[in-house]
């Protein structure tokens, strides 16, 4: 009998038919799953077309955003959210605690240091496990989990199977490119590869206004007021390839069609590329989130 099998059987032994412990455990599991369902399906912030849903200037209410230290960090500096990365091929992000399903988000962003071969922008439809000390979906299970690391791990596997972060990211770079990516179960998928755009203000210190509109299943992307086109492969699962001004094996489209409306958190992201290296520092400010207009595309106004 293997160690893992032995441990599993010991856990199964806690729920023998007819025992009081079995009934209690089943009741707790049922209640916890119901709790988890409603917790994960928390109502997103919505409004009529054109409504202002959320604003962040990073001059207050800082507990609404993820802040942390380390080689990848998120901090507030001079009234801006700063994301920093010391190593190549790493990413740092910060998300607001609120959930949205239809939105028109824009943010002012500028790279303050590091290589211009970088990546930064907006993350959306973020679904991730909690970073709290206790991230089990019901408080009573936090207490049970503290009794045994093994039991805690088993409860997490049964009650909270989502162990990876899921999100979309619309990115630009300081050398004038943009791209659309999706992360599912830790796997990165390039939905639209890096494409050069004259709309992007290049070099360190240059400020760009990045915008994403999600309306139903349709996503559209803007930089400094100009809508950008995406290179979407014709075959599902094929690589997005853009060379010499042409979308190879696909077509240029004005937006991306998601498989379903994308509920989740909104946030900001910075990446250090393999070719550019570490030392990336990006500042973000003046986030606005509106309910998208029916016509869409025109600049939302406060």
**Percent of sequence in beta strands:** 35-45%
CATH topology of the largest domain: Jelly Rolls
**Would you report the number of β strands?**
19
Helix content: 10-25%
As residue ranges, the low-confidence spans are 1-17, 33-41, 130-163
Q: Mean pLDDT, nearest integer?
A: 80
Query: Which structural class is indicated by helix and strand composition?
Result: alpha+beta
Number of domains: 2
Anisotropy-based shape: globular
What is the level 1 CATH name of the largest domain?
A: Mainly Beta
Number of helices: 4
CATH superfamily of the largest domain: Exo-inulinase, domain 1
Main beta sheet strand tally, sense and closure: 9 strands, antiparallel
N-to-C SSE string, H for helix and E for strand: HHEEEEEEHHEEEEEEEEEEEEE
Q: How would you describe the overall organization of this protein?
A:
Strands 1, 2, 3, 5, 10, 11, 12, 17 and 19 form a nine-stranded antiparallel beta sheet that branches. The model is unreliable at 1-17, 33-41 and 130-163 (pLDDT under 50). The chain has two domains: 3-40 and 132-159, no CATH class; 52-129 and 164-290, Sandwich (Jelly Rolls). It is α+β, with helices and mostly antiparallel strands. Helices cover 17% and strands 42% of the residues. It contains four helices and 19 strands. The chain has helices at 3-12, 20-40, 139-147, 149-159, and strands at residues 52-56, 72-77, 80-85, 90-100, 103-113, 118-127, 166-172, 177-184, 187-196, 208-215, 218-223, 226-227, 230-233, 241-243, 246-248, 250-253, 256-257, 264-272, 280-290. The protein is globular.
């Amino acid at each position: 009998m293997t160690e893992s099998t032995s441990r599993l059987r010991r856990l199964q032994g806690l729920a023998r038919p007819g025992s009081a412990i079995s009934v209690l455990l089943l009741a707790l599991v049922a209640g916890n799953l119901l709790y988890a369902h409603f917790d994960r399906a928390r109502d997103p912030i919505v409004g009529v077309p054109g409504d202002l849903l959320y604003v962040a200037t990073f001059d207050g209410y800082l507990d609404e955003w993820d802040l942390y230290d380390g080689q990848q960090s998120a901090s507030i500096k001079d009234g801006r959210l700063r994301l920093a990365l010391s190593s190549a091929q790493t990413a740092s992000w910060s998300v607001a605690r609120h959930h949205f399903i239809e939105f028109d988000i824009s943010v002012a962003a500028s790279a303050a240091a590091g290589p211009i071969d970088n990546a930064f922008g907006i993350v959306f439809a973020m679904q991730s496990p909690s970073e709290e000390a206790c991230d089990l979906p019901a408080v009573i299970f936090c207490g049970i989990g503290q009794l045994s690391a093994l039991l805690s791990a088993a409860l997490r596997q049964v009650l909270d199977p989502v162990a990876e972060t899921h999100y979309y990211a619309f990115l630009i770079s300081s050398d004038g490119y943009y791209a659309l990516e999706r992360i599912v179960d830790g796997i990165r998928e390039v939905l639209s590869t890096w494409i050069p755009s004259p709309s992007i203000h290049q070099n360190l210190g240059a400020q760009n206004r990045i915008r994403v509109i999600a309306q139903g299943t349709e996503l559209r992307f803007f930089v400094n007021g100009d809508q950008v086109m995406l290179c979407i492969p014709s075959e599902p699962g094929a690589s997005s390839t853009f060379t010499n001004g042409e979308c190879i094996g696909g077509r240029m489209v004005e937006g991306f069609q998601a498989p379903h409306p994308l509920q989740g958190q909104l946030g900001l992201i910075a990446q250090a590329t393999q070719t550019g290296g570490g030392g990336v520092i990006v500042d973000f400010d003046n986030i606005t989130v509106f309910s998208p207009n029916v016509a869409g595309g025109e600049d939302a106004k406060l």
